[in-house]
Amino acid sequence: MLLTYHFKNALTGLKTNKTRSFLTILGIVIGITAIILVMSLGAGAQNFILSQVQGLGTKTIAVIPGRQPKGPSDAAQIFSDSLKEKDLVELKKKSNVPNLAKVMPVVFGGETSLYENNTYRLTVFGGTELISSIFDLAPAEGQFFTEDEVKSRANVAVIGSKVKEELFGAGEAVGQKIRIKNLNLRVIGVLPKKGQVSFFNFDEIVILPYTTAQEYIFGIKYFHRLIVEADGEKNIDTVAEDVRLTLRNAHGVSDPDKDDFFVQTQADLAARLGAITTALTLFLVAMASISLFVGGVGIMNIMLVAVTERTREIGLRKSIGATNNDILTQFLIEATALTVLGGIIGVLLGAGLSLFIGQMLQRFAAVPWPWSFPWLGALLGIAVAASIGLIFGIYPARHASQKSPMEALRYE
Amino acid sequence: MALIEIKNVSKTYTDEGAATTALKNVSFAVESGDFLAVMGPSGSGKSTLLHILGFLDKHSEGAYFFQGKNVSLYNDMELAKIRNQEVGFIFQTFNLLARTSVLENVKLPLLYSEVPEGDWDSLAREAVEAVGLSHRLNREPSQLSGGERQRVAIARALINKPKIIFADEPTGNLDSKSGQTVMDIIQKLNDAGHTVILITHETYTALNAKRIIRLQDGIIASDEKVTNRRQAFEKFVK
To answer: For a surface tag, which of A21, A119, A123, A225 has the fewest beta carbons within 10 Å of its beta carbon?
Structure first.
């Protein structure tokens, strides 16, 4: 009864001092907005990364050359040329990795492509005929290269939809020749619009036999990745372990700490990236909390001003029977009403902004961005706002409650 | 048993090391139903006396008995309860809440009482009617004249049906006509059984009372019955 009365009173007070109330809660609004925004975007980024990682399929394992960095100061990617043709041969042996279904070497890099007078910067992706099944790709026009074309270092290429658009416009692409680094490649296929899959944008890519890419474009004899597919999801850990043992054996490494490669399952990658986004989110939330603290001090300041301004009111209330607790409650409710209002505005703003940013990412960066209202963040934000009101309101409220009624009444 | 009895009450203020004595050994009793005016020039201690009698301040020495009980034995919570239930205050500056309707202003003491919320409205309307302001129920103080504001304050003082009404210079901020109206109402309240203690420095206001105590430098200079009491108009008989 007393609570609802004071709450209504507090809202009336907010309305009569609109500008002041607004400025007072601005710090809280900004802080809560930032927190909701960061949490919501963080969750979106995590969803996005997970969907990307899962785009490659949960049966696949990536073997990456170099030593896995153990910390920020660890020099990464030293043995970056450690994966070679003989490893491929070893991994294909049934006796080494019994549950292996497919293995594909991958080389990649950024290059400029040329057709007549058009140039386009794209990603060169060298693989084998297995690429279509591993990445679930089927050409919209033409076809993929064959195993024989991989063996014979054929000068053939399958291009992404964007590449076709940039180089050929509305014209026919299949059968034409594009030029990358003095190498003429015959276009044999065009990919459908696919977008981002596991860190490669297949619309801005040209796929060719890895042998061709190694020899004529990159001039290397090693691989940037080995993509291994297990024969079933349940065998993924067995396959990962068998791959490790096989490669260690082939490279003559006895101490696992001295491995010159590392094996990454999609689950590993998801967990690692998830941990990074979580840490980043937490860090940003901590930064935003500073704004909340500053906002809280602002609340305390303005409540002290209000208490002084309303000294006579406090005196009057005491003279007609208000106890110290009644006055304390009144001012605490007022402070909390302010901060909770700020919290609600902040939650709505933060949720709205994150929705907007998600929409923009979807529209202009073609990034799939699932958005949902951050209920947890909203609850947390409002709870935090309320506690700020209570924590920073308690000092001014106590100050108000302990005024002597007589002195308060005589205050001018 | 007197409603109020003080014995040798003194009040000393200490401000920045210097002690000022506002009241010195003041003793008197007020019977239930009395109408006492306390007069004196400024600095005579009359406001201090009212604050002590009204449980807003504590005396330094002596004893104050309210309904036979020593006030020093009450704690802060009990004093708040007494202020809420036994006492009504009328101030020179009205002390109404701004941007709050007449009705809500009058209800204010009920907020701190045990009166059920369902009864608040009818009690407040009754009190407003007693001061003749029923047509102003939803106005805010800024829309009222000084006299009307003081009548709202009187209605607020009345709402808990207090035994004593303390009036601290109630006409001090009013023109003489509004002042007379206010004093008429206060006389009627006294007739209805409320004990009234009035602080004023104007003799013609004090003449509304039945008894006048004059204070001079913190001591009682005189304490006498009023023989030529001003008669209230019959305007607000209820």
So the answer is: A119
Q: Residue A73 — very low, low, confident or very high, per pLDDT cuts 50/70/90?
A: low
Q: Write down how long chain A is.
A: 412
Q: Say if B80 falls within a structural domain.
A: no
What's the CA angle centered on A207, arms A201 and A211, to 5 degrees? Answer: 135
Which residues does chain A have within 8 Å of residue B56's beta carbon, measured at their own beta carbons?
A: 318-319, 404-406, 409
Beta strand ranges found along B16-122 (DSSP E)? 18-30, 35-39, 61-66, 69-70, 87-90
Whether B11 is covered by a domain: the verdict is no
Name the pTM for this structure.
0.72
What's the rounded mean pLDDT across residues B138-153?
Answer: 95
ipTM for the complex shown: 0.93
In three-state form (DSSP H/G/I as H, E/B as E, the rest C), the secondary structure along A210-268 is HHHHHHHHHCCCECCEEEEEECCHHHHHHHHHHHHHHHHHHHCCCCHHHCCEEEEEHHH
* Domain membership of residue B149 as a residue range: 32-58+85-225
Contact residues, A window 38-77, toward B, CB-based 8 Å cutoff: none
Residues of B with CB under 8 A from a CB of A: 51, 54, 56-57, 76-77, 80-81, 83-85, 88-89, 91, 93, 95, 97, 99, 108-109, 111-113, 117, 156, 160
Q: How many domains in chain B?
A: 1
The C-alpha atoms of residue A339 and residue B174 are separated, in whole angstroms, by 42
- The predicted model gives B14-28 an average pLDDT of 88
What CATH number did the domain enclosing B101 receive? Answer: 3.40.50.300
Helix axes A311-319, A266-309, angle to 10 degrees: 80
